[in-house]
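Try this one yourself first.
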């Protein structure tokens, strides 16, 4: 099926759903619709509520808040950004259990935030978005979900970059005789004791999963398409005395967060390709590998063939030891075919397995929801992004009035906290809304030439970064255009400075028609 036919099918199904039952077809008027209830969506909702705005809903396709931290429940799931930095600056927490938070604690944090900030009445769970359509005549968006329809002035897309699983295109995968699943869909009742298990992938999820399943499975085969740079994690539990000191002196916690932020900022120099910092990062990973893997042949197999930082640098103290265990076998190629319980690798090797885990990542640079968003002149967001995701200030997209994308084009980081970036964007969104409301302006749209200039600047900034020069293929780079479309190619502090002021000169205010 072609892309155009696929979009028409979705919209045809949406129309049927909207027409089936008059109450459902009636659009509920709200000021703002937020799509997604992870860090970005909840952060936007909390700040809207704190500013006194209550006419908004948060539509979430899942049954709870939390986004990726709700979905990913695999053994060992945890964050690789320090707890005090991977949390809202306006909601500090003194009782994180560890330096790096386990996934369950992060989910608890987000659930608590939604509850204590009064967001629960605004949440609409089990609401998958079917279509978003802009109407130039009314200057409003119609948002059709599997549960309700909304007519709104503003849309904030906060679906994130780790929400749409990427499944490998492997012949016969559906024929596998045992359980086969993506790492983000881990069965809660899964028992791998005594089983022969295949683990496809060697990225951030795989390095957390492998040590846990190696401890219980009879045999584990790790399918490694390319080796990763791994550095020490150095995680530890916070002492009760530390937590008590933060409760007694909140300023000390703010100081700690600031220090952590600037320590992380120092990591950008290596991504920019600075010789000294890049060599230091490379050597740190090499020393870690040499210290934990005495076998020279295995070390060679685990040594990347690209520059450090080109792909995500992983943090682990138990991944290499797990690979050294007798129950684990490293297969230095990807899955190639499946027939019953027999799984073949690209190398030609074949394995009999009882379970197959796919830690194969997500559709990060081509978000599927873009097919469902139709802006001015009926153009879809996916069509506007045919050469890769673009946005002005990484937040607004030409031809899509009154729509904001958070944690989208060039708004992620490879060295610091995503939450800092999300808060920078939320502040920009609220400033734009305040400006337009104060002038009773119904709509605005970024000027195409401003967006083009910004994208060209991003491309210039990215040109010499390790993400484009490091000799790897990564999920940071658009597969078709080979542009760096996911990451912001500068420091997190520079991003915040860039978005510190909403400039109306960058926009068609009141919707002057584009040429």
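Now uncover the answer:
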């Amino acid at each position: 099926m072609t892309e155009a036919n696929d979009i028409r099918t979705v919209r045809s199904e949406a129309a049927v759903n909207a027409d089936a039952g008059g109450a459902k077809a009636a659009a509920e008027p709200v000021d703002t619709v937020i799509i997604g209830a992870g860090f970005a969506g909840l952060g936007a909702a909390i700040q809207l509520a704190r500013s006194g705005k209550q006419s908004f809903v948060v539509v979430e396709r899942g049954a709870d808040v939390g986004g990726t931290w709700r979905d990913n429940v695999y053994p060992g799931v945890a964050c690789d950004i320090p707890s005090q930095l991977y949390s809202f600056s306006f909601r500090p927490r003194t009782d994180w259990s560890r330096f790096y938070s386990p996934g369950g604690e992060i989910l608890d944090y987000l659930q608590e935030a939604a509850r204590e900030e009064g967001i629960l009445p605004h949440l609409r769970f089990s609401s998958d978005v079917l279509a978003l359509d802009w109407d130039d005549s009314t200057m409003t968006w119609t948002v059709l979900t599997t549960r309700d329809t909304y007519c709104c002035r503003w849309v904030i897309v906060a679906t994130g970059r780790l929400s749409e699983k990427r499944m490998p295109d492997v012949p016969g995968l559906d024929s596998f005789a045992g359980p086969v699943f993506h790492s983000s869909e881990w069965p809660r009742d899964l028992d791998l004791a005594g089983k022969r298990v295949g683990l496809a992938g060697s990225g951030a999820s795989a390095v957390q999963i492998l040590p846990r399943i190696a401890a219980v499975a009879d045999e584990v085969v790790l399918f490694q398409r390319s080796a990763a740079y791994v550095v020490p994690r150095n995680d530890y539990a916070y002492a009760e005395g530390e937590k008590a000191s933060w409760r007694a002196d909140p300023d000390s916690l703010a100081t700690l967060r600031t220090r952590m932020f600037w320590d992380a900022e120092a990591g950008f120099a290596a991504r920019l390709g600075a010789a000294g910092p890049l060599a230091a990062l490379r050597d740190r990973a090499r020393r870690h590998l040499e210290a934990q893997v005495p076998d020279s042949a295995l070390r060679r197999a685990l040594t990347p063939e690209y520059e450090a930082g080109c792909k995500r640098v992983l943090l682990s103290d138990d991944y290499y030891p797990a690979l050294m265990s007798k129950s684990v076998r490293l297969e230095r190629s990807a899955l190639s075919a499946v027939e019953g319980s027999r799984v073949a690798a690209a190398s030609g090797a074949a394995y009999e397995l009882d379970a197959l885990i796919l830690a194969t990542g997500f559709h990060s640079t081509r978000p599927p929801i873009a097919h469902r968003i139709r802006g001015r002149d009926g153009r879809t967001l996916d069509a506007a992004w045919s050469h890769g995701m673009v946005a002005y200030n990484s937040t607004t997209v030409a031809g899509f009035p009154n729509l904001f994308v958070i944690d989208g084009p060039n708004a992620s980081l490879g060295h610091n906290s995503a939450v800092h970036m999300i808060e920078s964007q939320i502040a920009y969104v609220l400033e734009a809304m305040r400006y337009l409301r104060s002038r009773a302006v119904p709509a605005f749209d970024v000027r195409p030439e401003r967006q083009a200039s910004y994208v060209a600047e991003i491309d210039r900034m990215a040109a010499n970064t390790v993400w484009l020069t490091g000799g790897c293929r990564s999920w940071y780079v658009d597969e078709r255009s080979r542009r760096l479309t996911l990451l912001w190619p500068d420091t997190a502090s520079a991003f915040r400075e860039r978005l510190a002021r909403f400039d109306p000169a960058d926009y068609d205010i009141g919707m002057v028609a584009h040429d």
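Discussion: The first helix runs from residue 3 to 19. Confidence is low (pLDDT under 50) at residues 1-24.
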